[in-house]
Amino acid sequence: MKILVTGTAGFIGNELAIRLLERGDEVIGVDNVNDYYDVWLKEARLARIKSHPAFTEARIALHHRAAMENVFARFKPQRVVNLAAQAGVRYSLTHPHAYVESNLQGFVNVLEGCRHHNVEHLVYASSSSVYGANTHMPFSVHDNVDHPVSLYAASKKANELMAHTYSHLYNLPTTGLRFFTVYGPWGRPDMAYFSFTRDILEGRAINVFNNGDMKRDFTYIDDIVEGVMRVLDKVPQGNPDWNGNTPDPGTSKAPYRLYNIGNNQPVALMEMIETLERHLGKTAAKNFLPMQAGDVPATYADVDDLITDVGFKPDTSLEEGLGKFVEWYRGFYAIR
Question: When comparing pLDDT for 178 and 210, which is higher?
């Protein structure tokens, strides 16, 4: 297939592009390679796919309407995976307009491109952050999620609402994927496990928020990509049992679905740090701090729908996943 993937210089988008190319798909990669984090790392990711004959790079920003219209008109993709976004809960507290441009204006441009060019299926990244103030666990896509606690989360919830509108009005099949704390080789430097690794190796203390009383459903990158691939190949249809009197948030009469992709095994933050210390062979000095604004104490994914519909459940252990990350980190940054 001819597949447009946004965010191909990013962590998940780059790994997905590699997998799609390996199976024989043609990939059009959209990314503006911004400086939210290390551009050198982003360029190194792109170098892994640039020379592939079935890869075409379009270095543009999602919120540039004319450029996005041109990409859709020129390449006419059959399917689209939107992974480009302004990421980060904490960054959204200080740079709100970046989220409006990329996650709202940019997503409208993706939806319009799909609508006007008869795209068969749009898969897009949502986030576990949409669960916000919810405390009933594990988090289910069938739960109401109307209480976000950061602008980033609100923008991802908005994406789900916007996608549903296009599924309803234009019969555009859309699937939203709520990712849970993705980690692994080639990851994002703004994520805790990555910055902890850097600080521990360089002898700096790490900041441990909420005094370490946090849990995360850490999900290894290979499991995330496998989930995206399987969902991409399953075009959603309307749920005939959907009822407006008791509306199910995770499905619709329209061709619209939501899935969690998480490891379904939340791990305490202190356990993650201890695992990382073991693989690094060094003990971290720790600054214990209060909870940060916009953060949540725990995440935990209910993945029953993912198992039922596409036959897949993430299962890479944190021990294995962090081991592979540390091995990559030492090699990539030439650290002995």
Answer: 178
